[in-house]
Design goal:
The complex is a heterodimer of chains A (131) and B (591). Chain A is an alpha+beta fold and 131 residues long. Chain A has four helices and five strands, in the order H-E-H-H-E-E-E-H-E. Helices cover 39% and strands 16% of the residues of chain B. Chain B is built from 23 helices and 21 strands. Chain B has a five-stranded mixed beta sheet, sandwiched between helices. In chain B, strands 14-13-17-15-16 form a five-stranded mixed beta sheet. In chain B, helix 5 crosses helix 12, helix 16 runs antiparallel to helix 17 and helix 17 runs antiparallel to helix 18. Chain B is flat, with a radius of gyration of 28 Å. The chains are: A alpha+beta (131), B alpha/beta (591). At the A-B interface, helix 1, helix 2, strand 2 and strand 5 of A face strand 1, strand 2, strand 7, helix 4 and helix 5 of B. Strand 5 of chain A pairs parallel with strand 7 of chain B.
Chain lengths: 131, 591
């Protein structure tokens, strides 16, 4: 890894990664679906790891290219495990109470056909806009 | 097209299931079968429920009734015209707002400390950098002086999020003015309040924000070493911190000559064994030094003589998580959020008898009513709200009359509780307040380090008196004794843990005095929690003499002839409730 020795280095790295993350957040032009699994201790205790593994193996088996990442707590303790799915060009959607059965439904209906399924958690917060 | 119908508890109570059904019927009837109806979780806008949101155009209908389904389908789905009368009306200018994107105001939460949690991959430094990570420390090291940094934090009005609410900028200033060959920056990640887990969530979801903030803190006070004191029972947080520290070192964001500024800073982890008192800063420092985790008298404050006798600045995880964004967006942005004396936001772990249990971040000044009934979606099973406990074992219980009090440090103290680290436990009418006070005292007795007598012995006695009251042996003198003893402990205990430990007793005595009186005078527990005060009775009218209760009583306390009313011998009864479960005729009740 190269060292960051100046503000310019940091900015270069930032814009470089931002591009990659943008494509992840908005779904990239090749049509990759982005899936984030909330994996703090509480999420993992509720079964997030199994859901993460399920997406990993099942999407490969079903030949669906997804960008799968772990992330921290989304705050919806009442609906763990929670995942966020972003289809290319669409707003991110958060699903709650995702077990492997629900994950299967999400893959088959939402990821493949864009059909929503029950269990959506509406985003009820605003995040500070970074500069 | 999708129609999203809120399936939160509040909206379900106002027939949202019927709305789904009607929408589906209407869609079929009007030949729009490709439109899907989806039941969602709570929108956090229960006041105006039931909510129906139309995607993809984000139209947000409020107070929808089942009979509105036909019109929504005919007008919106088929003709693409919004049903104006169901749109949210701005109470100020009476305008209809249709797009939920313009309805940010209904979103009561604002995420500052949790800005990256659930958004970035915590094990990948690049994702943090892409979200302006390490830009604040870059700005500090290349453009600002230490004095300017402290000034900015002071101006922001940020106060310690660990509970006490000491102004962070002032703390930094004091540490910066004490000169020594070595100073230390310590992150207090010894989160110990029952039910509070915001610090763990931040460390697990956004560890770099704490590392960046500690570096800024080090530069501001002239410290080159940072220590994170974290409980060993947070293994995932530790794991992610280790990864984060390793990645920051590889990038040269920790180590020598950061950003070519000549400033050196590095961070090490120190593990705690999970003692509540080690959240107190002097006890924490002793624990890090390898000594017993016991507090010592202040002064000297850690800023004068802390870790290894050197000037040390201790801040909480959530406090640190706020620092980088304050530097980036400026103190004048931050100090516009919140109330006059409490700026910014606070993260709460919302728990207890509430529908949407969760980790929330709200601006200071929001009311308990908004937190409980909007974000929290109201009380579980439609029961009545009774109290909310804030501040953990150091805090108190607030009641109905405090629901509209804006939440900030000073208001909570004035109401007999405190902010604490952010646990918020909501209770309904099945909670016995004497038992709640007893529960917190049990915790304090368990966690008291035993160094000073008021805390070690006083809390034990408080607990004994509460135990006596819940057993039905309390006297009026006991109530006075509780108050006197609580006052003595408050005045004489050595550290913050001891000084605040009587708060759960005092606040319940103040706010629920009548319940204490009932326990003492009438030997009655209205919530039905205190077993010793309950009496199981068989109604002779309803009892058919089936003998099911008598056969299942583990202590043979029920007697009676077949087909004749039975009687419970209350002397023998152990109040296990087995008889009530067996009785098919609802003949047994608790008096």
């Amino acid at each position: 890894m190269t060292q960051i020795k100046s503000l310019a280095d940091l900015k270069a790295l930032k814009s470089n990664i931002q591009e990659k993350m943008d494509t992840r957040a908005k779904g990239n032009k090749d049509g990759l679906v982005a899936v984030k699994v909330a994996m703090a201790t509480c999420g993992i205790a509720a079964g997030a790891k199994q859901v993460f593994d399920y997406f990993l193996t099942e999407c490969e088996k079903r030949h669906i290219d997804i960008v799968l990442t772990q992330t921290g707590c989304m705050g919806y303790c009442h609906a763990e495990p929670t995942i966020e799915v972003t289809l290319p060009g669409k707003e991110p959607i958060v699903f709650g109470y995702v077990d492997t059965q629900k994950a299967d439904e999400i893959i088959e209906k939402y990821i493949k056909n864009g059909e929503l399924v029950d269990g959506i958690i509406p985003v009820n917060y605003e995040t500070v806009q970074k500069n | 097209m999708h129609l999203l119908v809120c399936g939160g508890t509040g909206c379900s109570a106002s027939q949202s299931a019927k709305i789904v059904e009607n929408l589906q019927l209407e869609l079929k009837r009007q030949g729009q079968e490709d439109v899907q109806v989806i039941l969602t979780g709570c929108f956090g806008f229960c006041e105006k429920g039931p909510i129906v949101k139309v995607m993809p155009d984000n139209t947000f209908y409020t107070e929808v009734k089942p009979e509105d389904a036909g019109e929504i389908v005919a007008e919106h789905v088929i003709k693409g015209r919004k049903v104006t009368r169901l749109l949210y009306t701005d109470p100020e200018n009476k305008e209809h707002i249709s797009d939920s994107k313009h309805m940010g105001f209904y979103k009561k939460q604002l995420r500052i400390a949790l800005r990256n949690c659930g958004f970035i991959d915590p094990e990948n430094i690049d994702e943090y950098v892409a979200n302006d990570g390490y830009a604040a420390v870059a700005k500090v090291l290349t453009e600002m002086s230490a004095e300017q940094v402290i000034e900015e934090i002071k101006l922001s009005g940020l106060r310690g999020r660990g509970g006490g609410g000491f102004p962070t900028g002032l703390k930094w200033e004091i540490a910066s003015k004490n000169h020594a060959d070595q100073k230390y920056v310590v992150c207090n990640a010894d989160e110990g309040d029952p039910g509070a887990f915001m610090d763990r969530s931040i460390l697990e979801g956004d560890p770099h924000s704490v590392i960046e903030a500690m570096t800024i803190n080090g530069f501001a006070i002239g410290a080159t070493k940072g220590l994170i004191y974290i409980r060993a029972e947070y293994p995932l947080a530790i794991h992610r911190l280790q990864i984060a520290i390793g990645q920051a070192r590889e990038y040269g964001l920790l180590g020598k000559n950061i950003f070519g500024s000549g400033f050196d800073f590095d961070i090490e982890l120190r593990y705690g064994a999970g003692a509540f008192v080690c959240g107190e800063e002097t006890a924490l420092i002793h624990s890090m030094e390898g000594l017993r985790g016991e507090p010592t008298f202040k002064p000297p404050f850690p800023a004068q003589s802390g870790y290894l006798g050197k000037p040390t600045n201790v801040n909480n995880v959530e406090t640190y998580a706020n620092i980088p964004i304050i530097i980036l967006k400026g103190a004048n942005w931050f100090n516009k959020i919140g109330t006059e004396k409490s700026k910014g936001t606070k993260v709460f772990a919302l728990a207890g008898q509430i529908n949407n249990v969760g980790l929330i971040e709200v601006p200071m000044g929001i009311t308990l009513r908004e937190v409980i009934y909007e974000i929290g979606g109201g009380i579980k099973n439609g029961r009545a709200f009774k109290a909310v406990q804030t501040g953990g074992p150091s805090g108190g219980c607030l009641t109905e009359k405090h629901l509209d009090t804006p939440i900030d440090y000073d208001n909570l103290i004035a109401a007999g509780s405190m902010m604490g680290s952010g646990g918020m436990v909501v209770m309904d009418d099945t909670s016995c307040m004497v038992s709640i006070a007893k529960f917190y005292l049990e915790f304090t007795v368990e966690e008291s380090c035993g160094k000073c007598t008021p805390c070690r012995v006083g809390n034990k006695r408080l607990h004994e008196i509460l135990e006596k009251i819940t057993k039905g042996n309390g006297t009026m003198e006991d109530l006075d004794a509780l108050r006197n003893l609580a006052a003595v402990i408050k005045d004489t205990a050595l550290c913050g843990l001891g000084q605040t430990s009587p708060n759960p007793v005092l606040s319940t005595l103040d706010n629920f005095g009548d319940e204490y009186l009932e326990h003492v005078k009438d030997k009655k527990c209205r919530a039905g929690v205190c077993k010793s005060l309950m009496k199981y009775v068989i109604d002779p009218e309803a009892c058919v003499g089936c003998t099911a209760c008598a056969r299942n009583c583990p202590v043979n306390a029920i007697a009676g002839e077949k087909k004749m009313p039975h009687v419970i011998n209350t002397e023998l009864c152990i109040k296990c409730g087995a008889c009530i479960e067996r009785c098919k005729f609802n003949a047994i009740s608790i008096k």
